Amino acid sequence: MSRNTLALLDRLPGAAVLAAGDVMLDRYVYGEAVRLSPEAPVPVVAVRRKTWAPGGLGNVVMNLHALGARALAAGVVGADAKAEALRGLLSGALSEGSPGFIADPERPTTVKTRVIAGIQQVVRFDEESTREVPPPVVAAYTGAVAKAFPLARALTVSDYGKGLLTPGVLAFLLGGARAAGIPSIVDPKGADWERYRGATLVTPNRAELALAYGRDVSRATGEILAEAGRELMRRHGIENLLVTRSEDGMTLLLSSGETVHLPTRARAVFDVSGAGDTVVAAVAASLAAGAGLREGAALASLAAGVVVGKVGTATASPEEIRESAAISELAARR
Asked: Which domain holds residue 242?
């Protein structure tokens, strides 16, 4: 691992990132699978504890904060108690000037509940609305975001298909980033990537890339994935692409034509939920600090390797990243 990658951690404090898109609450119910239910062939989980954590762009914010970057967040929530809980969880991680969360009284705050038996997720259920956010709420949202662009050095867009990121809102966000002269990083959703035209970087996993490409290349070799990725870049006017490939690491496709493969840095994989948010946060913070995409992707690989070794949506601190890098370095020398 390059010394420059770890040195980048010292440049992240104060780097301002505007995180826009879909925000949610992640609820975790932990317990033990004690027996099979007599009512159906499913485990009975004896609940031991419950926790709440910010999800979606909320997890991006928490990862930015853990890295020392300044986080400015803009999302849409319901007018309910879950929204207040989310605001409370994020209050210490948001910087001054953050647009905050606009309330839509006609929708619930999105909640994803995961039931974990031991370290194994056994079921997830979602409470949400995916209808389009109404025009008055969109107007309030874009007005708040517009005031934050001058404060930011990078933009992240977390698209989870919850009804906020219509083509019009995405055009506003990506166009605003271009006008402000800052890079934009998109965590994509769905098959229609035309909506991301003009993005500096899109960060799909293998399944997301295959869906957008229109052919199942999710288990293909790195070379075939790179070909599919470059076709999507040409087709939709995307400058760069970072494909996360789980145990196979990440592949960075640069606008220069260069392809960079980054091996996985995970020592153990317990839970990949939220790892994409960590990648987005690490790359965005790096770019906001003036680093290049290669440096940012290398740091993101290290950070993602830390969080997949934890259960639940998690963050990676500079200390954890340095420790993980040191252990990987020792292992490589043996």
From this structure: 3-25+55-109+130-333
